[in-house]
Amino acid sequence: MASPKAPIPTQMHTSRLILRAFEDADALPFHEAIEPALPSLRKWISSTTEQNTLQTQQARIRKAQSDWAAGTRYNYLVIERETGCIAGLVGVFNVNWTNRNCTFGYWLVPSCEGKGYAAEAVRQLEAVATGEMGLDRIAIMCDVRNERSARLARKLGYVYEGTLRKEYVGPQGDLTDTLVFSKVRGEEYH
Ligand SMILES: CC(C)(COP(=O)(O)OP(=O)(O)OC[C@H]1O[C@@H](n2cnc3c(N)ncnc32)[C@H](O)[C@@H]1OP(=O)(O)O)[C@@H](O)C(=O)NCCC(=O)NCCS
């Protein structure tokens, strides 16, 4: 298996945000922060339909830590620098070191939407994916009806590649169509 070009940072700063890997002590604040985000998360992300208990969030953090150690997924909590509050989560998912590609994921708590935080966090994630990780392709995938997510991808310069039909079993249990956007080395970045 190929590996990252350089150690992957566990903490990064942008002008308004801190992005950092989960710590065990995050379970309670994360459990509280995600609650108001669940109605919109449950429209699009099947893994968020489980009950939001402290135990489920402890298990989520353990899984994030073991995936980080295995080199398959790198989740970063997004923290507002001004308040120290959890603003959301971004992640480098489905890392394929052989083919040097990944998929980005992101969400914000509702009170942190509309401030440019997602764009700011995703730009920082790109710096790691293209730098330390040395990946040559980044994909963003979202439900065809998820206008906000698609708008973010387009705003950040991701190129629409196509629509995968009946690609994902959505939170309501029905097969849904998925938009695919990407940036590739040599075209959208160097
Ligand atoms: C998808 C999601 C992360 C997008 O969040 P967002 O708030 O629209 O994106 P940003 O944080 O980048 O903010 C962009 C908005 O902030 C505005 N903004 C305000 N101040 C800004 C600033 N200082 N800098 C940049 N943008 C700013 C922008 O104009 C833009 O507004 P617009 O959408 O009306 O054009 C969010 O809607 C979400 O969490 N959705 C639910 C989960 C989800 O669907 N995740 C994706 C699954 S594929």
Automatic annotation (TrEMBL):
Gene Ontology terms for molecular function: protein N-terminal-serine acetyltransferase activity; protein-N-terminal-alanine acetyltransferase activity
One cellular component term from this protein's GO annotations in UniProt: cytoplasm
PROSITE patterns: GNAT
DNA-binding found in the keyword field: no
Keyword Cell membrane: no
Pfam families in the record: Acetyltransf_3 (PF13302)
N-acetyltransferase domain segment(s): 28-186
InterPro entries: Acyl_CoA_acyltransferase, GNAT_dom, Ribosomal_N-acetyltransferase
Keywords annotated in UniProt: Acyltransferase, Transferase
Protein name per its UniProtKB record: Acyl-CoA N-acyltransferase
